[in-house]
Amino acid sequence: MKLKDTGEALTIKNWLIGDSYRPDAIVFADGSEISASQLSSMVQAIGTAGNDYLYTSNYHDDKVYGLDGNDTLGGYGGNDELLGGNGNDYLYGGNGNDTLYGEAGMDTLYGETGDDHLYGGDSNDILYGNEGEDVLDGGIENDVLDGGAGLDTMVGGLGDDVYVVDSNDLVIENEGEGTDTVKASVTYTLSANVENLTLTESAANGTGNELDNVILGNSYNNVLNGGAGNDMLDGGTGADVMSGGSGDDTYIVDNANDMVIEIVGEGIDTVKSSLNYILGANVENLTLTGSAASGTGNELDNMIIGNSYNNTLNGGAGNDTLDGGVGWDAMIGEVGDDTYVVDNTSDVITENAGEGTDTVKSFITYTLGSTLENLTLIGTATINGSGNSLDNVLIGNSSANTLDGGLGADTMFGSGGDDTYVVDSANDIVTENIGGGNDTVKSSLSYTLGANVENLTLTGTEASEGTGNELDNVITGNNYNNVLSGGAGNDSLNGGAGADTMAGGMGDDTYIVDSASDVIIESINEGIDTVKSSVSYTLSATIENLILTGSAMTGTGNELDNMITGNSYNNILSGGAGNDTLDGGAGTDTMFGGIGDDTYLLDSTSDVVTEYFGEGIDTVRASTSYTLGANLENLTLTGTNSIKGIGNGLDNLIIGNNGNNILDGAAGADSLVGGLGADTYIVDNEGDVVIEDAEAGTDTVKSSTTYMLSANVENLTLTELTAINGTGNGLNNVITGNSGDNSLYGMDGNDTLCGGVGNDILLGGTGDDVIYGDGGGETVRSISMDNSAPITIPDSFLAGVSKSYTVNESGIIADLNVWLNITHTFDRDLSAYLIGPDGTSVELFANVGSSGDNFQNTQLDDEATTTISSGTAPFSGSYRPSQALSVFDGMNTAGVWNLKVVDNANGDVGQLIAAQIEFSVLSETSDGHNDTLYGGEGADTLYGCGGNDILDGGSDNDILKGGLGDDTYLFGVGSGNDTINSYEGADNGLDTLQFQNLVLASIEFARSNNDLVCTITQTGETVRLSNWTLGSAYQVATFQFTNTTLNAAEVNQRIA
């Protein structure tokens, strides 16, 4: 007790234990008093948030609150009220008429003695009424309600509830409140809205309601009645009597004395029996369970299903379905149209003649017995079905089946899958749906394919006819003289052995010919047709294509546009008139295109193409290096190898592949089209046209006539001895003159111009150009670097070995070759690369040769006629590398070069014995030809080399080097800031610096370290003479102005 004003409190210990601990009364200052009994009714027991243990006294009406936690509450005596609160609580009412509330959580409530009220609340609760006439309310979720002794009332509420019932208990369930079960220890009839009943203890009888009930008996002899609904009745052990009533009922039988009672018209009912069983009247179906061995039907249409044992099933009268299940089963249908399900090769079906039209449904390959009419294949396995002498109906499954009706007029339907039908009667019927697979009929007599069947094979021992339909048919004859007709569609007709007649009809048809006596009939405009012949063959009119097979040697076309293909033998192919395509295949083939624009496919240098004058515009497509023969106009290189294509005296079109090709049109105005590789074009006619796509390799034109580079071609080399000219394009060109007097013009781009032998005029154009007056493309100096000792090639996947070559001498590369010696136990594993000072890498070879062929004095040279990939090991002599070495042309020799050899697989050994890089470089000395060099726009470098040259850097900051001879340097307003290197060593010439349109007074002379700097005072532009003060070898002899001339000595006086 607590004072409201001060909060002071008085505690009476053990009050709840009993009266012996309580004072008789509480007396207040005003004289009023409260008795112990009055005070007890005012006391409440309240728990905490934890797990509490609260019990009240034995005599008073107490109120106990569990609050949170898993509490245990006890009422003892009195009419108590217990509230569990949150948590999984245990509530004990004790004596008296108590009220228990489980509230939230999974609670267990015990009413104990008295007429108690129990309320489960939320979650799955368990309510025990115990003694008295109790009221139990489960609330929501799945509750267990057990009223105990007395006349109890139980309300399950929402959820799948379980009621434990004894005598006279009342169960209340509303519709839609779950699937509920009564466990009754007495004979019981389910009330409304309760679905299931289980008899316990000694209860004898159970009755359902209008719902679909599950009624379970006990070990006694029960009487179960399902009532309306689709009920399941299981009497349990004991000799039970079961009556399902109306509805499709199921009976569980486990005793030979079990009795099933069904009335006519009460549904489709099933017995599941664990012992041998004979269906009683009005029961339709039987399923054997456990170890039951035999099942017998009645006069109805029964469904009898076996178990995993070897069953004997007897359908009796009626249209029965018998399925033995796993095991070796014996099935007897008797009278009626019966269906048997077979899944074991040891299953046995017994049918007597005249007992109906019966069907087998089989999961396995099956042959009908003599008195069975129909067969249906089921499942997804690829299985087959065979009939008998009756008129059978055979149906396949979704897989590829073979259906053979045997004797009789059979009907066969394949369903899905690529099915095969065996036909032996003119009355056999084959049925296929659209999209039902690629199907085949094998017929021993003449046959016409029905709709949706693709293929026909004639069997048997006499000449027959085979006819297709509108599909793409494959029709195959037998060994006799057949007549095959394809009809519409792209058909393939093969007469087989014998003198066959084949007519493809409309469509692109294929004929297989194996005899000179075979006859092909094709009308005009019936498609593009092909003959595949194993004998020498000449195409008849209206047939377009011919393929030689087997050992056939000769193939001849007609006036159409033929495609004629040889085999692996040495064939002779003749196209005849028309635009023909001839492909000899493997072997040394001879091909005659005849009149028309013909195409030849070549794969061997031994193939021979013959064309006569005026027979059309012809094309050779070659996968090897090839030179066009007479009367052939065009050449296309195929494959991926770096090969060469050469024309003839006609105006040729030559097209390269994606390798590094050499394309040479020879005489005539030719069109040369490169691929993705670094291609070389040989030009000898002003009408020659070179076509290159952007970024399709670094390409070179070698021209014996005046030439301007077309778009996307990088380099130009003038050949022969005549005075011709060369012009670049917008790319960074390398343009090299010949020994004649050339005019070279770089145009846009950073170009390198090499005049070569002769009195040349060189104009760089826009860009930072390098210009050489002499040197040309001839080998004027060779720099060779080789290794001193053999180097082991590591037998480690992709590790490789590298040999470095340091070149100190500077020169511009005109040509580069590689020479090497390698020994290895399996050369085909090797690949080799040359890597330049700037990181540019070229593959020399990869995966060529075979076992231990070796590289013996092997030279890799762009100008070689044989590619390394098409060469024959051992590799000795000169070969074109896998990738062109010309990518190094125009680069400087100076720096570190690396030769790398890689073993691409384990298990072999070898050495790099020796190697050498051979450079041909442009010389800074020559035979004294007088060249004129113009740098144009850009920061140019001009080399006069030998001869009396004129050097004009043009605008921007240029470097001018005259070399040997009496050279003239031009400088004036707009020239930029140029540098002159006039050093000539012991052969010092008389060089001149000419100031164009400038008088002496406009030039200021000054010394800068060892250099002489001449400045145009009005613009500030300068010309610097390198190392002037080191002596006359570095000096020009004459300074020429518009008004006067100075010599070197006079200039020295001005800077002294």
UniProtKB/TrEMBL annotation:
PANTHER family: S-LAYER PROTEIN
Keyword list, A-Z: Hydrolase, Protease, Secreted
Protein name: P/Homo B domain-containing protein
Any matching Pfam family: HemolysinCabind
Main location (coarse class): secreted
Domain P/Homo B per the UniProt entry, residue ranges: 775-927
Domain of life: Bacteria
InterPro entries linked to this entry: Galactose-bd-like_sf, Haemolys_ca-bd, Hemolysin-typ_Ca-bd_CS, Hemolysn_Ca-bd, P_dom, RTX_toxin/Mannuronan_C5-epim, Serralysin-like_metalloprot_C
GO molecular function, one term: serine-type endopeptidase activity
Places the protein is found: Secreted
GO biological process, one term: proteolysis
PROSITE patterns named in the record: HEMOLYSIN_CALCIUM, P_HOMO_B
